[in-house]
Specification:
Elements (H helix, E strand, L loop, with lengths): L4 E3 H13 L4 H8 L12 E3 H15 L4 H8 L2 H4 L1 H8 L3 H11 L15 E6 L2 E6 L8 H8 L1
Antiparallel strand pairs: 1-2, 3-4
Helix pairs in contact: 1-3, 2-3, 4-8, 6-7
Amino acid sequence: MSEPTVSAAYAKALFDLAVEKGADREMLLTRSGLCEAVFDDPHTRIAFERFKALMREGKALSDEPALALYFGSQIAFDQLSLVGLITRAAPTMDDAFRQINRYGRLIIEVEGIGAEDRFQIVRRDGRLWIDDIRMNPDNFPELTESTLG
């Protein structure tokens, strides 16, 4: 099985936010194992582990523990990818939810998701919840924060 990847456009948006929040550009690139040229083509794929390092080093270097939440709430998803445009154009939330499950891997791939949808709406204790069924969510809680932020 190949290693999960993330679109360069998505990673660049995180990089830019971390720098905006005070992270040193060069140090962030070095510590996350990236070079700025990787962001030149938004369709380039970077290793998920590099993205995880980018998030964690961005938090540390910007001294912003809520960086993932800011990322989720401030990202212009529809400007980063066709996936964002498709989701935004969906006529209902149910349709948008289906589209993000269908095309989300174009933005970010995660372990343990095959034919099954990553995001599922489940009823528990009389309430509706969104479950992210990716493997090992506790290894990178920032992904949950940025996704649902």
